[in-house]
Amino acid sequence: xxxxxxxxxxxxxxxxxxxxxxxxxxxxxxxxxxxxxxxxxxxxxxxxxxxxxxxxxxxxxxxxxxxxxxxxxxxxxxxxxxxxxxxxxxxxxxxxxxxxxxxxxxxxxxxxxxxxxxxxxxxxxxxxxxxxxxxxxxxxxxxxxxxxx
Length: 149
Prior knowledge:
Elements: H1 13-36, H2 40-51, H3 57-64, H4 68-80, E1 84-89, E2 92-100, H5 102-123, H6 128-148
Antiparallel strand pairs: 1-2
């Protein structure tokens, strides 16, 4: 009988990263879910538009590495709640761009500091060298992932 590779999930990097990401995302979601009625996808869209206003829905999906359908739903929800505005892009009436509305900026201004405080608490067990190494390793893994596509 041929030797079969055994996938030990507890030590399989993609699985471990996914589990950690899910746990952190669910934990941090409590910062904005109860108070603002935002889901993880809506917050990510708000956060990206807070940093990079004027993106299209496709650009949002690309920047967040989220499914276009999920981004579209989040954008629709944020538009309905008055947290995002949509306008046509210059002379190209086929392309629309999104920006935070006044209400979206208000929510962002309240959630962003709490999210940053959460990040500081999460990283508080790491020294400066470890934080720098973690950032560098995440960048290297991202580069390696891009090469596999």
